[in-house]
Design brief:
This protein is α+β, with helices and mostly antiparallel strands. The chain has one domain (2-180): Umud Fragment, subunit A (Ribbon). Helix content is 25%, strand content 27%. It is built from five helices and eleven strands. It has a seven-stranded antiparallel sheet. The protein has a four-stranded antiparallel sheet with strand order 7-6-5-8, with no helix packed on it. A hairpin with a 2-residue loop joins strand 6 and strand 7 (126-127). The longest helix is centred in the N-terminal third of the chain and has 25 residues, at 2-26. The chain is elongated, with a radius of gyration of 19 Å. 25% of the residues are buried. Residues 7-179 form the Peptidase S26 domain. One of its GO terms (molecular function) is signal peptidase activity. This is Signal peptidase I.
Length: 187
């Protein structure tokens, strides 16, 4: 009788771990903001939840979405990257999370022409109204980017303290790991 009870517990635990793994890889996952590139919107060490179905289904994020990206844009991502990036797998394997996941805001989508001129960001010739940024950009020169197909352009809200698409380049859609889940306080 004790052996059957033990087996029931092991089976239940294995099911729960498997379900947590599947949900974390394909549906939603917690992330921790590292650094100050998203100040004042998000703070260093703040925990956020990310909706991963957009990654699973290869959906194009909207302008203004806060996304988690894999900043290693020069390499191809695989399912193994999603698996070993899951916190439960890292806990079981005793591995540490590398610092290549960035939290940024989507400012450009495929086909967009982005320009920085006079310390302001323009998309397709229209100056963007960005009340969420910390301060005016301290860009020393005007710059332009044309976002290629199947890529996005991201920037931090703290533009003067952010490593983003201005530095690492365009973000392939398969490197967009998910979008921040917005919780409503009215629920």
């Amino acid at each position: 009788m004790k052996l059957k009870e033990l087996w029931d517990w092991v089976r239940s635990l294995a099911f729960a771990l498997g379900l947590a793994l599947v949900l974390g890889i394909f549906v939603f996952q917690p992330f921790k903001v590292e650094g100050h590139s998203m100040d004042p919107t998000l703070q260093d060490q703040q925990r956020i939840y990310v909706w991963k179905l957009s990654h699973t289904l290869s959906l194009l994020p909207d302008y203004g979405d806060i996304v988690v990206i894999d900043s290693r844009v020069d390499r191809k991502r695989s399912f193994q990257d999603d698996l070993v990036g899951h916190p439960l797998v890292q806990l079981l394997l005793g591995t540490e999370d590398e610092n290549f996941r960035f939290v940024k805001r989507v400012v450009g989508r495929p086909g967009d022409l982005l320009e920085i001129k006079d310390h302001q960001l323009y998309r397709n010739g229209t100056k963007l109204d960005e009340p969420y940024i910390k301060e005016m950009m301290d860009e020393q020169r005007d710059r332009k980017w044309l976002v290629p197909a199947n890529h996005i352009f991201v920037m931090g809200d703290n533009r003067n303290n952010s490593m983003d698409s201005r530095d690492i380049g365009f973000i392939p859609l398969d490197h967009v790991l998910g979008s921040k889940i917005e919780w409503s306080s009215n629920q």
